[in-house]
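Morning F.,

Quick status update on the modeling queue. The single chain you submitted on Monday has been processed. Sequence for confirmation:
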Amino acid sequence: MSGGGKRYEHAAALAEREREHTPGEAIKALKAFPDARFDETVEIAFRLGVDPRKADQLVRGTVSLPNGSGQSVRVAAFAQGPKATEAKEAGADVVGGDELVEQVIGGSIDFDAAVATPDMMAAVGKAGRVLGPRGLMPNPKTGTVTNDIAKAVQDIKGGKVEYKTDRTGNVHMIIGKKSFTEQQLLENYLAVVEEIIRARPSSAKGKYVKSLTVSTTMGPGVPIDPNRIKGTAEAAQTA
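Structure tokens below.
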């Protein structure tokens, strides 16, 4: 068996996937996984009791991770004039107006997130076929279309992440790096859980959080008890 296979086998034993864990237990198990040759990303995956085909059951929004994501995010800002200057000063990696839109349409995408001022959205919309499928289209609902362009850039750089249910009702999000402390990962985890619960559509019926797991890039998923997603039984009343 290869070194990677042995590492995964060891991690799978630590994950105890035959039972559901409390959040603290799950994160402790992840931290005990054998280290890979790089700092792995820690992710959370929810299976929600929603029908994403219905517009009123789409779960979408943003959440600010209190300890950041641990990732270096390149941010593009579609802005002109003084707003472009504000975006640059706030740390945007790529800034431009119509010329940036044309570059994107041409296939040049050198960024991981995008923000825009409202006056730029007519032009940015022309690049929708390129930005949309990549999850990069600025949207007022997620705070990425705003006149406060500096704050939008700073929020993303500081650990604000977007989420959206996929076609099967699942939500995947990054909650940090394996090098984070257990406390840092738990704080990020709880921030995400609180946001997902807050975003529950009023039209969703029955069990909302059907299952959830946390995992590392190279490791197995560790299941968390959906009745104790905050670490206590009281979560069952809201989830």
